[in-house]
Amino acid sequence: MHNSIRIRLWSAAAVSVVIALALAGVGLRYLFELNVERRVVSELTVDLNELIGATRFATDGRLTVEATLTDPRFVSPLSGHYWQVENMTSHALVRSRSLWDGTLTLPEPGGNGTLKKAELKGPGGELTVAVMRTITDADGRSFRAVVAEDHRSVEASVGQYVRDLAPALIVLALALMAAFFAQITVGLAPLEGLRVAVKDVIGQRTARIDFTAPVEVQPLADEINRLLDAQQKALARARSRATDLAHGLKTPLQVLSADIRALRKKGETELADEIEKSAGAIRRHVERELARARLAPGVSGKAACQVREVAAGVVAVVRRTPAGKQLSFGIDVPEDFTGSIDEGDLTEILGNLIENAARFAKSTVQISACANAGEMTITVSDDGSGIPEAGLQAVLSRGVQFDSKGGGSGLGLAIVSDIVEAYGGRLAIANATPGLRVSVYLPCHG
Questions:
Q1: What one-character DSSP code corresponds to residue 382?
Q2: What is the pLDDT of residues 117-132, one digit of tens each?
Q3: pTM of the model as a whole
């Protein structure tokens, strides 16, 4: 899966979503903290104005606060809510009961009447949010009033907000990841359609990619079709050259056969056998290459033929051979059974398999065919001696001839294997009781 485009795109999208929402979470926390601090400053300003209104200079010049603030937290020791008034002349302090025996350390005073926001250390050294203002009366006497609140109240509000926000961000991240995955799946759907179209070509159901793709994918489909066209033309040229070669060799081989007969008449049998052996090898290889040349890459799935009719035609020919005259042939194929294979290719397959079976059979050769689960099975069996187990395994592993004795060409199974492979099928060989059973499995196209 590590090479999956879908997984790569989704992983990149997931990472992007996580990073974006993490940054959004940090930003939202910061903005919420600013808003909480603004609210605290606004509330403290109300308390500060109330404190200033309650502050008076006595006739002896002492600073007094005539009434306490309404918030009960100002009278609870170390509650986190404090006020303090300082006489700017004598620096005497009047403090809220909540400060107990502590004081607020104040910065340099600002301008007269100007509201100033600051962060001060509380009685326990904790950070506080404070607002202060310096007031001067008509007699020129001045005092500085301060109201402060422990910053931990802000942090508590922010913490609660983050705890509420985190699940929402997680749910949003999961929803976005699911949406991205769906979007990627829909976006890559044309590639799946192209894959199916290519599979149809490989599976011989179509000769070209018949697929209307989006503009981004259509050029790829067009290039594949051009490749298929070029391959088809190259095949046609190769088949033509193979045919020309076969015809070119036909006459020399006929002359060679005549020379072999002449040598035998002269009594030079050993030399004639050597030449005949070489000529036979040339003829067999030419036949195999011709069989290969007849096969197109991705044989058209529209090819079809009547299996029983083809089998009967092959049996009629084999009956006339010396080995076939003494045998009984059985064809267990329904009359209307149609195979998804070119008639000539099926004739080549059955011709080689039935001829091999007839060469080794004692009395009977049986041909059967059936279709099951989208696959056509054609079986040719005989009642001969079969193949030793070691030899059978070698045949299955190499896919080469098993009829190296008995006068055969030694290329029948190889030709069958080439044709079956071209149709996307498979070949199976097994000993029966008695004899040998060769099964060809071909895909059905309907």
A1: E
A2: 988 888 888 899 999 9
A3: 0.51
